[in-house]
Amino acid sequence: MKALEEKILAEGKVLPGNTLKVGSFLNHRLDVDFIMEMGREIARLFADCGVNKVLTVETSGIPIAFAAAYALHVPAVFAKKHKTANLEGEFYKTVVHSYTHDADYDVVVSREYLGAGDRVLIVDDFLANGKALEGLIDIVGQANAEVAGCSCAVEKGFQSGGDRLRSRGIRVESLAVIESFKDGRITFRNENVN
Amino acid sequence: MKALEEKILAEGKVLPGNTLKVGSFLNHRLDVDFIMEMGREIARLFADCGVNKVLTVETSGIPIAFAAAYALHVPAVFAKKHKTANLEGEFYKTVVHSYTHDADYDVVVSREYLGAGDRVLIVDDFLANGKALEGLIDIVGQANAEVAGCSCAVEKGFQSGGDRLRSRGIRVESLAVIESFKDGRITFRNENVN
Fold first, then answer.
1. Residue ranges per domain, chain A?
2. Contact A77 B30 (CB under 8 A)
């Protein structure tokens, strides 16, 4: 998505450790109109896939998942990172490793909100090592639901997550794929090559 | 907002401890179209207030804040509960007590995304004791920005938070105000009485 690549070049900052900061529009300050545009693009890519639910994981996946769900006219579900007092009853549960925080955490989804017959589009803001998406795919499997595909705003193509998912036969559509951060310059993988 | 009261009566569950569970549409599964409708109602209520930014705190405030910001055509900012590796530089910071988790946590907003001249509408999903909103008001004050008002989806009117804020002269518009949960029956405060 050319507009996203341009936005990343204009507003993104590369921090030490190949961290891309896009807090100005994607995950701290939210450029709501632009996120809605990304949601429409995701909906276009998965228009004929029978998606009836969007799944993400808190926190920063929520805005783009919400926008994609709005454009697809389906509900969104966000997985929670901890069992809280507001979650009663039974859950699907998986463990995800966060490299950012160097810790494992539980990810849970209520059994009420995901089940057999659901055809799920998994959406997140970032795709790097793919651990969060793999956790959500595991949860969809536990629910006997189907994964229609995965879509992320920004994929770090030089990490293994996206391509490992694709090699499993899962359709992964990232709106921008960063090939490298060499010498502080951001290079994108050719658009529409997935 | 009559439609929200009806939705709460149809789908909400009162759990022990006067916890209202609305995970079916507001904070686990997201009824995106309905949340957008709530966002439009918030935008209508604050249409002439010069709002140029919506502020919320992660996690469950994000969808309704996003929807309100979309309807107001302004960006949203969500405060983060911990300083993370993706947040560089300087922050406004406050401490909020969570009764749900019986713990204090830091709430931070980057100084890049809030400042003097901003006129801020604070949005959240729930208003009970008001601690989260007070924390956000504190952050707006640190930024030398102005609070245009606060708007929440569901206020527990039998707790003190909303009325304490109103007594400080802050405009608080809750889309549904629960007066009591007596005998498992939900009673609402009269609409449009704030």
1. 2-188
2. yes
